[in-house]
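Subject: two folds for Thursday's group meeting

Dear M.,

Sorry for the delay on this. The cluster queue was jammed most of the week, so I only got both jobs back this morning. I'm pasting them in the order they finished. Each block is the input sequence followed by the predicted structure tokens. Could you check whether the formatting survives your parser before we put anything on slides? The first protein is the one we discussed after the seminar.
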Amino acid sequence: KPFKAKFVTGFKFDIQRRVPDVSKVKKMLNWEPKVNFNEGLLEVIEWFRQKQKK
């Protein structure tokens, strides 16, 4: 159902910027992501759209 987003200022201790880094998990677990960021973002957007239709 429709909603109105309310934007508020954050706390002074909030993290202002995030820079995720998977290099540690790659090294420790010999892991590689299977989906790049853009593909993953498109999948999430499509998932939300499908959920809204229900």
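Second protein, same layout:
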Amino acid sequence: MSASAEVQILKWLESFKFSNNFESWMGDLPNSLKLIPVNSLAIPGSHDSMSSGISGTSGISPDSSLIVKALGKILGPFVKPLVYKWCVTQSRTAEEQLQLGIRYFDLRIAVHKPTGIFQFVHGMYAEEITQPFNSIKNFLLSNQQEVVILDIQHFYKFGTQHHKLLQNLLHDHFGNMLCPLPECGDVSKISLSWMTSRKYQVILIYRGPIGGDDVRLWPSRLWPTPWPQTTSIQSMVSFLSHGLAKRSSHVGYVTQCVLTPTPSFVVRHPLSNLLDKCAAPCNYAIISWLNQQHPGQKGVNVVITDFFDFDPVKFPFVKTIVLLNYKLIQEESVQQSWGTTRNKQMHQLQIAPGPLGAVPQVSHSPEVQVELKNLVHP
């Protein structure tokens, strides 16, 4: 590896070890990591990303359980404070999340009756979709080497016309920022470097009906997001580990580090909330598991959690996920993660590809070797 590449890696490792500024972390990656497929990078995301827009007076939304809807009709405003404490999963706005390094947004949208307005939801109505999308677009315009994955997971009270209207709105809003579908549906053919060179900054996953000729909306199958659906940390970790062991190298993958309270769980803890009973215990327990993970083949890609920034000292979520990418350098396994694009990218890095499946022999200076060792074994 060239001396300039060594210097870049060393500077980056040093800066991120002591920094909490991840506003431009993708653009600041060493060039070698920008060439890796986006589905082989470790990317921090948030679960129910827009729930910070929910207030204690928000209306009960159509995605809430039948029990909650029934209680809402009977008890009216008295049920809202209880539901609110279990619906909010994030404390940061979209703009703040981007500034803190989040690059994947888990979105759920409902048609608000009777206004017909599109609003984000999670048990209760959050804000109308325009302002958060404006914040995301403005951030990307100011940070042109950053990429965001918008995953619209659920649609409520939608008909065919609502889907057409929302899709037109998304196309009009993000325009040429939208990354087209990868060739043959193989996500491993797309890297940050490839996207940046073409000024693509948004991967838009649309888990609903898509018109046959729309090449800028990615179907659900290209980015699986298995849901643990449990209140048990042990069951969640087991579920996540088994999922990673089976994941394909040709699509993206979301690892959901979340606990999901059932209605009966909420009833047993009426004076508590999601942060205290689910998110905090989950996050404190999962951080050691995350540190043991790696990106790339059979490794993590997008990782999401609730209240990702609630304790930056004991739970440095974004930093932990971003720094996992340097295991690709430390383990000298970049080649194994690249799939069909590896020969071209090896040439760009001036690394001889070697036989299929072989690990490229990249030699680092003693300084970089020490930093990489400390990163993986702090």
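Two things I noticed about the second structure. The radius of gyration is 21 Å. The CA atoms of residues 70 and 76 lie 10 Å apart.

Cheers,
T.
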